[in-house]
Amino acid sequence: MVSRNYYLLALLFTAGCIEPFEPEVAVKDSNVLVVDGFINAQGASVIKLSRSTGLAENTPAGIESRARVFIEEETGKRYTLIESPAGTYQSAALSLPKEKLVRLHMTLASGKEYTSAYTPAKHTPAIDEVSWKPTNEGLQIAVNTHDETHSVRYYRWSYDETWEFTSAAQADLEYKNGELIRRKDNIYNCWGSESPTAIQVGTTTRLSEDIISQQPLTLLPSNSVKLRYKYSILVRQYALSAEEYSYWEALRKNTENIGTLFDPLPTQLTGNVHNVADASEPVIGFVGAQSVSEKRIFIKREQLPSTWNLLTGYESCQTWVLPTPFVSPPSHSTQEILYLIQLGQISPITRILDPPPGYYNPSFSVSYPECVDCRRRGTNVRPSFWE
C-alpha cells in the first residue's frame, strides 16, 4: 500500500513539474524557400513561391517575385510560367504523355537556381463516386475510385466546399445620401466557401486490387450551418508517385498529430527541390506531375434527417425597434437613427408601417450590420455552377 501511494505521489509530482518547452529555431532556417504546387499533366500548372517565417515571427510569409520559372522535359523542352499575381506563376494548359519525365526549373531574382527532381507524369483515374451518409456523428463524405491498370496505388485528395445561407434578417432599406431608400440588392441570400487544408492521402499497396472504397474526406456535424439549405463539395483527385506520397504522409503526420506529450515527434520532411549550386540548402516542397480528376455533388436539406437541428450561424443576433417603444420622450430622433446607421453601428431592416400604440412614427427595426449583411460572411453573387 505504501509503495502504491508513493507511486501515485510521484506521478502527481511529475505532472506538476512539466514546464513549457520552447525550442530554439535557427534564424537561418526561418527564411527558407517554399515551393507550393505541382505540374499539371493535363492542364495549367500553378506554382507559388514564398519564404517561410520563424515560429516567433508575426510577419506574413514573404513572396518570391520576379523569378523565371519553367517546366522542363528531360529532352530539354521548356514551358514558361508567367507571374500573376506576384509570387504566383502559371503555365498555359499542357498535355503531357503518361510517364513523360518532367521537372520544375526556377531562377530567382537573386540569381539562385533551383530544380525539382525529374518525375514521371501520371494520369489520374476518374473519381467513381463522391458518397455521403448520415451517421450519429454527422454527415460523412467519402470518395471511391479505382485504377484498372494497377499503376497508381498512391492518391491524394483536396476539396472545396460551398453552401447557401441567409443572414439573420432580410433588409429592404439602405442608407444612401443621408436618407433611407428601398434596397435594390440582396444582402440576405449568400454563399459561403471554404478550401480546407487538411491533408488527405490514401494507398492501395496492401490490397490485391487498386481500388479505393469509402475513403473518408470530411465529417460535417449534424448541426452544421453548411447544411441548412444546400451544400456542395468539389473533390479533386491526384495520382502520386511513391516518393510524393511519402512526403505528403509525413507532412500530414506533422500537421495533425503534434500537440500533446504523447504525440509522435515531428518527421523530417524531405522534398524533391534543391539549390543547383548548394544541395545542403533546405527547401520546402515536393513538385509532382499528374493530371487532376474532379467531381462535384450537391446535398439538399430535405435529403437529410428531419431531426437534425441545423444552426443558422446568427444565433447571437437580435433585432430591435428604434425609437424604443413605450419610452417617453423618444429614445432617438430620426436624425440620430440615421447618424448611427451612417457610422455603421446599426443597419436598417425595415420601416414599421402603421406602428401600433406605444410605437413612434416613424419606427424602424434595426440590427447590427454583421447580422443583416450576409456579404460579411460570403458573397451574394450566385456561383456559376450552382444548381
TrEMBL record:
Superkingdom of origin organism: Bacteria
InterPro entries (UniProt xref): DUF4249
Pfam family, one: DUF4249
Protein name: DUF4249 domain-containing protein
